[in-house]
Write a structure and sequence with these properties.
Elements lengths: L1 E9 L4 H9 L9 E6 L2 E8 L8 H15 L4 E3 L5 E2 L2 H10 L1 H11 L2 E9 L2 H15 L16 H34 L3 E6 L5 E10 L3 H14 L4 E8 L11
Antiparallel strand pairs: 1-3, 1-4, 1-5, 2-3, 6-8, 6-9, 7-8
Helix pairs in contact: 5-6
Length: about 250
């Protein structure tokens, strides 16, 4: 019988609160929870037969639900589904060996939740719009391109040059959209991870840690951005436990 680890959390002087919460909960396979503690942190675990842990949707959802309930009460670091150790003693040893890293990460996520933001668009339509605006705003004469004489590839070269300019316009546009939002994140002291141009339809794919009491301001900011950029589709998710901000390599 192994120990399935759901999360590492900071219970400080609230071990009684943690034990009371765990008493009313059940884990995967209807198992009871226990807390393995070392100084100011605890690992929330339940008994599990290794061969009996099936990686299906129901178990994954049940695992995530436990983490969400715990996160509402304690700063925590969610563990990967299927994190199993042999015994309470091995869990305790793991906590002791990684204690400084766990503490640093728990301090980073305390009183914060993770949010996700994806910005979708039809990139071809956006590029067409940007090209039209660029052409309309250019009042000075366009400098003629150098003539490529006696070349059968002139049309190909001109086409590639035009495509490059459109991509450049799109990248600059995405940078300006990101700058609008990251300006607010900086004001809010948020920690963020942003992927630009994640695909042809996803201009921005971002996750960030934000103080829990800032959720209403965040929703309003996304609403304002959507109204300023109707050609884009802003999709906000969360609040979530800080899945994307655990920076610990278990020893």
């Amino acid at each position: 019988m192994g120990k399935l680890i759901y999360a590492i959390l900071s219970d400080k002087a609230d071990s009684e609160k943690l034990n009371a919460l765990l008493t009313g909960m059940k884990g995967i396979a209807d198992a009871d929870f226990t807390a393995v503690s070392f100084e100011q942190i605890s690992a929330v675990v339940s008994d599990i037969e290794k061969a009996g842990l099936i990686a299906n949707q129901d178990n994954a959802f049940a695992f995530a639900k436990v983490i969400e309930i715990l996160e509402q009460q304690f700063p925590l670091l969610p563990m990967r589904f299927g994190s199993i150790m042999e015994s309470p003693a091995s869990v305790l040893q793991m906590l002791e060996q990684n204690y400084p890293e766990f503490q640093n990460n728990l301090q980073k996520v305390e009183n914060k939740s993770e949010f996700g933001l994806k910005i979708f668009c039809d990139s071809e339509k956006v590029k067409e719009s940007l090209s039209t605006k660029s052409a309309g705003g250019n009042s000075s004469p366009t400098k003629p391109e150098p003539e490529i004489k006696k070349s059968v590839y002139i049309e190909y070269v001109n086409k590639k040059l035009a495509e490059h300019r459109l991509e450049e316009l799109l990248v600059n546009y995405v940078d300006s959209v990101i700058a609008e939002f990251t300006g607010k994140l900086t004001q809010w002291n948020a920690v963020s991870k942003i992927k630009k141009m994640a695909s042809t339809s996803i201009l921005v794919d971002a996750v960030f840690l934000l103080n829990k009491d800032m959720e209403s301001q965040l929703v309003q900011e996304i609403t304002d951005l959507q109204s300023r950029h109707p050609e884009l589709n802003y999709t906000l998710t969360g609040p979530w436990p800080p899945y994307s901000f655990v920076d610990v390599t278990i020893k």
